[in-house]
Amino acid sequence: MDIFVILIGVIALFTTHVQGIMWKLEPNTQKCLKEELQSDVLVTGDYEVSDVPGQKVDYIVRDSKGHILSQKDDISKGKFSFVTETFDTFEVCFISRVPPHQRGVSHEVSLVTKRGVEAKNYEGVLGEAAKLKPLEVELKRLEDLSDAIVQDFSQMRKREEEMRDTNESTNSRVLYFSIFSMCCLLGLATWQVMYLRSFFKAKKLIE
């Protein structure tokens, strides 16, 4: 029983990802939320913006290269979704626009994002399309959870290997640079001694 509870906890830790946040968006400013995501990950978001007469709020979702994945102007309440193509950092920005002649008022913005397994609608689209029973739908969800765990651990191992290779490469370069520096210092010291000796001999200060 304890092992089962631990397994469920690990699954929830590594694969369940739901973020909810609320903030005040000041007039004529923008607020961006960034997150690093793997490739082929489904991301969904539910947003709601308080209504302020005469003011508008836009949102835009883009990656680190500036590619726009989702965008909408003059929003109030709605949803967005996108699938990541590569491992990258993605950001969701909310932008306030106030006419020049109007005094701005802060908007209240709430955003709930889901990614991975939590973003999929198993009971709806998947269950109806495949004609699955509730138990089969749950098994399908658990199967996707296990696949997500394997992918997460695989990615963690890959990152660990990359970090280890970087550390080993850095250590080797520092060692070689230290040896090169010592050789340069020894060579310079030897040249100085020889130069001073020849100088003193030329001045007949030493034999």
> Order of helices and strands, N to C?
HEEEEEEEEHH
Low-pLDDT stretches: 4-16
Report the strand count: 8
Strand portion, in percent? 25-35%
User: Structural class from helices and strands?
Assistant: alpha+beta
The CATH topology of the domain at 18-119 is Jelly Rolls
**In the CATH hierarchy, what is the class of the domain at 18-119?**
Mainly Beta
Instruction: Let me know the largest β-sheet.
Output: 4 strands, antiparallel
Please tell me about this protein's structure.
- With 207 residues, the chain is of the alpha+beta class.
- The protein has a domain at 18-119: Sandwich (Jelly Rolls).
- Helices cover 44% and strands 30% of the residues.
- It has 3 helices and 8 strands, in the order H-E-E-E-E-E-E-E-E-H-H.
- Strands 1-8-3-6 form a 4-stranded antiparallel sheet, with no helix packed on it. A 4-stranded antiparallel sheet has the order 2-7-4-5, with no helix packed on it.
- Strand 4 (56-63) and strand 5 form a beta hairpin.
- Helix 2 (122-130) packs across helix 3 (134-202).
- It is elongated and about 100 Å long.
- The model is unreliable at 4-16 (pLDDT under 50).
